[in-house]
Amino acid sequence: MAHWQVLTLIWALVPLVNTVNFLFCPIERLVEEGEGLRVGQLFRLPLFLLMILLMVCVGASEATMTQWASAFTESALGVSKTVGDLLGPCLFATFMGCTRVFYGKKSEKLDLTKIMLLCGGLCVVCYLLAALSPNAILGLIGCALCGFAVGIMWPGTISISAQKCPRGGTAMFAFLALAGDLGAAAGPALVGGVADAAGGSLKTGLLVATVFPMLLILGIVVLIKRLGKSKGDAL
């Protein structure tokens, strides 16, 4: 604890290595000069607006659990903050990494939208398990498996956007990232506000936050229908 600065410097090596990598990494243009869609044109595309909604829900579903997993573990299991951090966010991150590695290996054989739909359903189950389970261990399992459920959502939405709207350019990805960050801020704030109003009941806050993965499922269903009608055509 007395030398936390050392740990910070060690973690600083990660972006430093990335900086060096980017100096030598070839970066292709997203679209040629003058061929990208303007902001006004982007917001007139129904598919783009749907992707914005998905990113808000993805950001909220992901960040809400990561932000509150430690506090939930501490209160539910009665453990210290150190143990809560290791059992909560650490397990969440581990499972998130597992799902991204798995999909990266099997992506050519899997339907991305269907995988996202299944993961959305699992995310709802995880939130309900954490919020409603009378058993603290089951609640912790819900927190951990939520990482597996949301792991593919953010990169998956970006991937579909790039595939179906190749002329979106930098502006499209900027707005998608902004939408994800908006959800990541709104979700935890909602849980905190509801939990405070419910007398400190974090489970009540997580139960209300289930609306985000539910909206995510609805959005993916609409997306699958739209992609089916477009027959794979890019916008």
List keywords for this structure.
235 residues, globular, Growth Hormone, Chain: A, mainly alpha
What can you tell me about this protein's structure?
By secondary structure, the protein is mainly alpha-helical. The protein has a single domain, classed as Growth Hormone, Chain: A (Up-down Bundle), CATH 1.20.1250.20. Helices cover 80% and strands 0% of the residues. The chain has eleven helices and no strands. The protein has helices spanning 4-24, 39-42, 46-77, 81-87, 89-106, 112-132, 136-150, 153-164, 169-197, 202-209, 211-230. The radius of gyration is 19 Å and the shape is globular. The model has no long low-confidence stretch (mean pLDDT 86).
Cα-to-Cα separation, first versus last residue: 53 Å
Overall CATH class: Mainly Alpha
Beta-strand content: under 5%
CATH-wise, what's the superfamily?
Answer: MFS general substrate transporter like domains
Estimate the global geometry from the Cα principal axes: globular
Rg (CA only): 19 Å
List the quaternary state of the chains: single chain
> In sequence order, what are the helices and strands, one letter per element?
HHHHHHHHHHH
Please provide the count of β strands: 0
How many domains?
1
Q: State the helical fraction.
A: over 70%
How does the major sheet shape up? none
Which class do the helix and strand fractions yield? mainly alpha
Could you please say which CATH topology applies here? Growth Hormone, Chain: A
The CATH architecture name reads Up-down Bundle
